[in-house]
Amino acid sequence: MRFIPDLIASLSEQTFQDFNILLIDNGSTDGVETFIRQEYPQMTFLRNARNLGFSGAHNQGIRYALEHWDVKDYEDSFILVTNPDIILSPTFLEELMKGTVDHPTVGAFGGKLRRAFGENLADEALQETVRSDLLDSTALRAHPNRTFTDRGAGEMDQGQYDGQREVFGLSGALVLYRASALNEVRNDFEFFDDDFFAYKEDVDLAWRLQRAGWDARYIPEALAFHYRGMFGPEKMGFWERFRNRRSKSKSRSFYSTRNHLLLLVKNLSVIDGILAVFRIVPLEFGRFFYTLFFEASNLRAYSAALSLTPKILKKRFRLMKLRKRGSKELRKWFV
Fold this sequence. Notes:
Elements: H1 4-12, E1 22-26, H2 32-39, E2 44-48, H3 53-67, E3 78-82, E4 86-88, H4 92-101, E5 106-119, E6 128-137, E7 140-142, E8 148-150, E9 166-167, E10 174-178, H5 179-185, H6 201-211, E11 215-226, H7 238-247, H8 250-267, H9 270-275, H10 277-294, H11 300-322, H12 327-330
Parallel strand pairs: 1-2, 5-11
Antiparallel strand pairs: 3-10, 4-11, 5-6, 5-10, 7-8, 9-11
């Protein structure tokens, strides 16, 4: 509830206004439903009795949109996924939609995300939102060991990524998807993988879109700001990374560890896995022994991943059947 009013206000100020808003309440208890029904009765509102996770709730929204469009219009219809703790600059949607015109093979578009900070939160009269020059994400960056980070996170924005527009994928915090691309890579009624629940589901979808032949594009002229509850810079030393890991909630550590393993099982091809084995295996052993000695309670993430593996392998089989790009073409992102 703290963030929703600012998000909706920024949407109402957009220079591009050809859109509808669907707000999905994932079983919240902070008064969002009352606020929306009183202040924005015209807005489509979907209320879940319980938390279905990032994946489940966003899948509801995507299905709702696709069901209200004709299939022949999917190519020129788009779905913007946005976290509640986002503030869009007035021209954000206009700049993104400009980028869609000349790039029909692009399935996902994203803008420049900078950090937003709340100041004087204890005093309602003095509360202020600081829109900083600190980058939050300019894209998802793929690494040779098959890990992924938010490109540029923690750096001051000096335009250093403005020229690098072809990207592996975009952060699920704020991303525009082409409806036809989502429809092609869906798994029955899933677009984001329901089994991921939360964390890394955006990476999984980005990987699937790449494999199916859909590009991703970064449009730096489209600017937005993100509060982001958990945040760490992309480039960290060993001890900084260690402290950042220790500060994460147990829930986030569980889903992050489990879903990283599911991501590899689902998307890593056999050939690619063999070629990258000396990068992947040392990292995974290091992760396991770190968990064993410092996060023993999180060992359940490994058993949870193992129990889900048969189900994930079925999805992998369907995914590999629709692929248009081979391992060699995908490998360019992991160098």
